Amino acid sequence: MAKIRLTKNELKKQKDSLKMYQRYLPTLMLKKQQLQAEIRLTEIRIKELLDEKERIDQSFKVWIAVYGEKGIFYPGLVKIANLKTAQGNIAGVAIPIFEGAEFVVESYDLVATPLWLDAAVEKMQQVLLLDLEAGIVEEQRKRLDHELRITTQRVYLFEKIKIPETKGSIKKIQVYLGDQQTSAVVRGKIAKRGLARANQGSAE
Prior knowledge:
Layout: H1 8-67, E1 78-90, E2 93-105, H2 116-203
Antiparallel strand pairs: 1-2
Helix pairs in contact: 1-2
């Protein structure tokens, strides 16, 4: 704790600081709660996306194993050409928002390849979209988590350090100024009595 001056000006400064801390603390606590809620939502969304991806992926693998012919379908057949995102804002945090993706499909002979290949390409795009969105939502979670750590530190700083420290400083200054005032009154009374005695002595 920094050394404080025991003056009326310092008392006013400390009282102003206390008002500021007490005004901002509820806002910080509200932000902390909002961030925690948003992080929970991102975690739920990531799980939903990955579960859906796994479901499609598994059914896709079984389907390819049953209907597919070796060498007809391969992962490189579908490639991501462009990931589309926008900028959003949650509790003052800039976050990316998933808006879709564009794919490039390697050309294949529509006559020579089986009909199921078209459906396989579509399934692959669905899986990639889910994976890409999960990646973007994970980035949202990371940014929100980073902001939550900073906000939590500020809440702790205000609630556990700054407010108690400032209250302690105010009390210390008030006690000192009160003692000074009492001393001044006592000194005034003593001086007054002394003056009265002096006046009485000179009168005799």
